[in-house]
Design goal:
Layout (H helix, E strand, L loop, with lengths): L16 H11 L15 E5 L2 E4 L4 E4 L2 H4 L8 H11 L13 H13 L6 E5 L2 H18 L9 E5 L8 H5 L4 H4 L10 E3 L16 H16 L3 E6 L3 E2 L5 E2 L4 H11 L3 E5 L23 E4 L11 E5 L1 H6 L20 H16 L2 H17 L7 E7 L2 E9 L4 E2 L6 H11 L2 E2 L6 E4 L7 H33 L2
Parallel strand pairs: 3-16, 5-6, 5-7, 7-10, 10-11
Antiparallel strand pairs: 1-2, 2-3, 4-12, 8-9, 11-12, 13-14, 14-15, 14-17
This protein binds pyridoxal-5'-phosphate (PLP).
């Protein structure tokens, strides 16, 4: 179809902003977006933590282009790594062959990962990294030397998020994303979310961790013979609304899964690569999972790539004579792509060269104190932070923690207002998420939090006005 241009002077190869806006609405079906009400925001270029639209307006990237940027946009070292790799080869399949860059990345990840997670399977996105972990865990029990073929089920968490392919949706727990697809999903044993903000009334604050571990232990002691693995987002459930698990919960889960002979899958797609202050979140509780899923920050936010790391015990279960069919029959065309591997290696080099992790405590503390200053604003129920992850939870009533109905899109409203103050954010329901690139400066953090402060204040004023107008109408 030959799409019309908006003005006769336009060139089809460089259409105007108006034309692109028009084509964007018509032709580009955006992820997790209600296209009937989509308002285009077209980013033409970026530099460091700044995004530029077609008019040259700049916005601070408050959520790392969806939790994946690490060292900033257009970092010369990362740009150069891709250019250098292009001079050799752009793509080599991983089906039965290899290339030096992907090999080096696999070895580097094995070296950096906790414990003996020495075997790296590459895919192209986080959902696939999870899908791979789930299939590996399942197949492992079917064919390891002392096989336990009854172990076919997974333990999952309410409101957990592991991606959008059907397997990863099955092990997820966000009702709104699952509802329509229910007939296509497999069943899991689902535990309540170990939330440290909304604690069940009968549980004492000091007892939250124990309470949830007892829950898991009861489940494992009854059903462990049927259970292949527990899958968890370590420390923080991202898409649930940046929900923090109690301290020592993760290490408790590791201990119980060992005791009951159940695998542990850690989905670090969001929390990996420095986000929580350590390279991997599991390291904060000295935990080594059996399978580790990585994505998002792996390439510094440059190219699609993910990885599933497995222990030698799992790897060994897949070795055998060809006719035994112990092969892992799974693979993605672009898995292990050398361009992506090159920029992933360069991302890891920058962690060392720029002392990225060493600089985090100062930034994290600054973020924490800025967040604390928001506590007194209207409708702020909770603020949470760890490393360079921050969250502001908006509630109707901070006393009772009564949430705003999700349909009211309060988080989105605050983010729309923050955009007018030069900061781009994307909320999770009523939770404002702060996840800037790890390269963010202290003054950029100031700007991000100031835009949120203004956004919340303006949202509260608008709400107050609406309330008074409504009561005027009902009481003429
Ligand atoms: C984003 C995310 C995924 C899915 O990754 P995609 O690359 O979007 O498929 C899986 N797990 C967690 C914890 C995530 O945050």
């Amino acid at each position: 179809m030959n799409r019309p241009l908006n003005s006769p002077t336009e060139d089809r190869c460089s259409p105007s902003a108006t034309t692109l806006t028009d084509w964007d609405r018509r032709h580009l079906w955006h992820a997790f977006t209600q296209m009937a009400e989509y308002e285009p925001l077209i980013i033409e270029r970026a530099e460091g933590c700044l995004l530029y639209d077609m008019e040259g307006n700049s916005y601070l990237d408050g959520v790392s282009s969806l939790w994946c940027n690490v060292h900033g946009h257009r970092h010369p070292h990362l740009d150069q790594a891709i250019i250098d790799q292009l001079a050799d080869v752009a793509h080599v399949t991983s089906l039965g062959m290899s290339n030096p860059t992907s090999i080096r990345l696999a070895a580097k990840l094995a070296e950096l990962a906790p414990g003996q997670l020495n075997h790296v399977f590459f895919s192209s996105d986080g959902s696939s990294a999870v899908e791979v972990a789930v299939k590996m865990a399942f197949q492992y029990w079917q064919q390891r030397a002392d096989a336990k073929p009854a172990k076919q089920h997974f333990v999952t968490f309410t409101d957990s998020y592991h991606g959008d392919t059907l397997g990863s949706v099955s092990v997820g727990g966000i009702a709104r994303y699952q509802a329509i697809f229910q007939p296509l999903l497999f069943q899991t044993f689902r535990l309540p979310i170990p939330d440290t903000y909304r604690i069940p009334a009968e549980v004492a604050v000091a007892d939250v961790c124990e309470h949830h571990l007892r829950h898991l232990e009861a489940l494992l002691s009854e059903h462990h013979e049927k259970i292949a693995a527990v899958i968890i987002e370590p420390l923080i459930q991202g898409a649930a609304g940046i929900v923090f698990h109690p301290e020592h919960y993760l290490s408790g889960v590791r201990e119980l899964t060992r005791r009951y002979d159940v695998l542990l899958i850690a989905d670090e797609v969001a929390v990996g690569f420095g986000r929580t202050g350590t390279l991997f979140a599991c390291q904060q509780e000295s935990v080594t999972p059996d399978l580790l899923c990585l994505g998002k920050g792996l390439t510094g936010g440059y190219l699609p790539m993910s990885a599933t790391l497995a222990t030698g015990d799992i790897w060994n279960a897949f070795l055998g004579e060809y006719e035994e069919s112990k092969t892992f029959y799974h693979g993605h065309t672009y898995g292990g792509n050398p361009l992506a591997a090159a920029v992933a290696l360069a991302t890891l080099e920058l962690f060392e060269q720029q002392q990225t992790l060493q600089q985090l405590p100062e930034k994290s503390e600054h973020l924490g104190s800025l967040l604390n200053s928001l506590r007194s604003l209207p409708h702020v129920g909770d603020v949470r932070h760890k490393g360079l992850i921050g969250a502001v939870e908006l509630v109707r009533d901070p006393e009772t923690k009564e949430p705003f109905p999700w349909e009211e899109q309060r988080g989105a409203e605050v983010c729309r207002l923050a955009l007018q103050h030069g900061v781009w954010l994307r909320p999770l329901g009523n939770v404002i998420v702060i996840m800037p690139p790890l390269s963010v400066t202290l003054s950029e953090l100031d700007q991000i939090l100031e835009a949120i402060r203004l956004g919340i204040t303006e949202m509260a004023e608008i709400t107050a006005n609406q309330v008074s107008t409504t009561s005027d109408q009902s009481n003429p």
